[in-house]
Amino acid sequence: MDGGCPFNLIMMTQRKSIGIVIFPEFQLLDVAGPLELFGASDGVQPLLIAARRDPVSPVLWQHHTITPEFDFTSAPHLDVLFVPGGPGIRHAIACSETRAFLRERSQKATYITSVCTGALVLGAAGLLVGYRAATHWLYMPLLEMCGAIPVDGRVVKDRNRITSGGVTAGIDFGLHLIAALTNQREAEKAQLRLQYAPAPPFQSGEPHKASDTVALELRNEASQRFREREQLLANILAER
Amino acid sequence: MDGGCPFNLIMMTQRKSIGIVIFPEFQLLDVAGPLELFGASDGVQPLLIAARRDPVSPVLWQHHTITPEFDFTSAPHLDVLFVPGGPGIRHAIACSETRAFLRERSQKATYITSVCTGALVLGAAGLLVGYRAATHWLYMPLLEMCGAIPVDGRVVKDRNRITSGGVTAGIDFGLHLIAALTNQREAEKAQLRLQYAPAPPFQSGEPHKASDTVALELRNEASQRFREREQLLANILAER
């Protein structure tokens, strides 16, 4: 090798960039699950991006802050767009800059992805029309408003859209994405690093498996938020 | 009700307090997994505690910071002690204040717990002698140095010690802990809120399930860190 790139530089340039779009009151685990998987893989490079470079906090945990590495203007080329969910999607859905950023960057991205209610942000940006998609079980009906075809799957891939179920689905999503961007062996290595051999003590993670009263209680709790999101999406989608 | 407690105050006082001991270079998902589950349950109150109240960052993610809510002196009564893992356990193991805090508070705690290599911090504090325990698969042999009985389990409960496997085991651990502190229904509700119905696309999360070359590669990568931790534990345990 004469005058070649230093090895690290080669590695860096070969890494696929994953732009994680954050906003106030995002759901911590929607980001932390995939992020930790991405950190356990040498083949991908996660980048934290927001409308402004001010520190943002996830919902519930004000003592956490994440300072975005890039704003929408300074963000480099992104191989993947990734949008997490959480109560803060109301900010992201209502923000015309966020929707414009997602639309613009989606033109050159290899994959356009979400975890949990991040799918509704993609939907508000018009990026799920005609695509099969998933979101948190409580908000599946809202996907149809966005022109998507709701699919009851943990990780749903349709052409270059990869959307997933609620919160913890982000870990399964992360494995799918690493395999799609690099190869299965790379994903398996990340899985073993994080010892991801889940063994939930109860089988209550989907509404049809949980007891009826638990599912009903959560539906009732979420009913106001459901209506608020429905109204917000209706307003935004009517603008188009 | 005359002169009674406001409802919120009653809720607060009934909530079981979980003291999460953090340190620089903790593993993000070791904390974020259980923390998000605790946040999805009304029955528990997680509190972030460190030797000092300065912001700390998890390993790999310097743009994240968590500002501890309490230092070792100001922390209130803790029903549960919880120690995460990560490269930063070398700071926690070497820190006599951390070990003293864990020993002192363990006297009155209902449960003494860990995820991933947090078990080695408990072990360094002398809290696992004679207990069955788990840790990240790469570091299981180090449990014996601490007088523990290594058990190949995802979540291992022995009397009031609850230790668990690597990183992602924290979510399974969190469910076990919520059920133990409150009741199974409360844990099931948190599980459904976070849609925890895991579906990993590959079965590489344990060394005996992963391909031999993947497991060997990670063992080789970790060999220096293994020796460093072994030496550090030997030094600390020799002081006793």
Intertermini distance of chain A: 55 Å
Shape of chain A: globular
Number of strands of chain A: 10
Beta fraction of chain A: 15-25%
Helix content of chain A: 40-55%
Q: What count of helical segments of chain A does DSSP give? A: 9
Order of helices and strands of chain A: HEHEEEEHHEHEHEEEHHH
Mean pLDDT of chain A: 94
Please summarize the sheet with the most strands of chain A.
7 strands, mixed
Strand order of the largest sheet of chain A: 4-2-1-5-6-10-9
Low-confidence segments of chain A: 1-12
Structural class of chain A: alpha/beta
Oligomer: homodimer
Most extensive interface between two protein chains, with residue counts: A-B, 62 and 62 residues
What radius of gyration of chain A results from the CA coordinates?
18 Å
Descriptive account of the structure:
- Two copies of one chain form a homodimer.
- With 240 residues, the first copy, chain A, is an alpha/beta fold.
- Helices cover 42% and strands 16% of the residues of chain A.
- Chain A has nine helices and ten strands.
- In chain A, the strands form two sheets. A seven-stranded mixed β-sheet of chain A has the order 4-2-1-5-6-10-9, sandwiched between helices. A two-stranded parallel ribbon of chain A has the order 7-8.
- Chain A is globular.
- At the A-B interface, helix 2, strand 3, helix 7, helix 8 and helix 9 of A face helix 2, strand 3, helix 7, helix 8 and helix 9 of B.
